[in-house]
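Z., the sequence and structure:
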Amino acid sequence: MPLIMLTACEEDPLLSFVRESGAYCLLRKPFEANDLIGCIERTLDN
């Protein structure tokens, strides 16, 4: 299942978890709507 991670945290353990989980995208809050749209499009293309 595709995974897109949204977070306000930047702690190393969380970032490591996201990388290991195979997430397609990691967006840090605040983010632009276009960034989210691009992330969704890249995820659906894979």
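The first strand starts at residue 4 and ends at 7. Residues 3 and 23 are 5 Å apart (CA to CA).

Let me know what you think.
H.
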